[in-house]
Amino acid sequence: MRIEVRFVLPGLLLAALAVACSNPAAPSPTPTVPAATPTPGVTPTPGATPTPLVSPSPTGSPGGVIVTIRVSGEEYRVLVLDPQQIANAEALLAGEEAPGIPNGRVIVGDDGGVNTGWSWHIDSNDFEFVDMTIELCDGRPSFVERGEVDGGRFCPWSAEVVDIAPAG
Questions:
Q1: How many domains does the chain have?
Q2: Residue 103: is it exposed, middle or buried by C-beta count within 10 angstroms (0-12/13-18/19+)?
Q3: In Å, how far are 47, 58, 77, 115 from 165, measured between CA atoms?
Q4: For residue range 106-123, what is the model confidence (pLDDT) as tens digits?
Q5: Would 5 be classed as within a structural domain?
Q6: Can you give the pTM of this predicted structure?
Q7: Cα(95)–Cα(38) distance, integer angstroms
């Protein structure tokens, strides 16, 4: 069973929350980079910058995956590149608990054939699954097609991940 919780925060509370979350005195985590492990039999070139290794996504495609999302009997597709969001999509497809609202910036035009059948697509670099969104971006893919979803984002609350395929 899926339970949706929707919150409407008064402007003053939202402003207070924004101020509380932007405390400059709070320490920021310092990212750590693991030391490079030398490859046996390979001599590093002096002054050369090591090339970072790219881990393939959980589905084995280093170029991301195409996630098919169903909303009220309509489907659209998103190219998902972020490994964390790919893992989230896989959890949702498996029926596991995970943030379940797809949220992304709408771009008018073709995306190379990912979101076939629609004249728009979701920006792969501005996409994530979330627990809550504003109602302004909720709707069906056909609403986006007709320009009825405002704010430049699409976040259908009743979305369901129905397929994941390796990209290209």
A1: 1
A2: buried
A3: 40, 11, 10, 13
A4: 999 988 899 999 999 999
A5: no
A6: 0.65
A7: 41
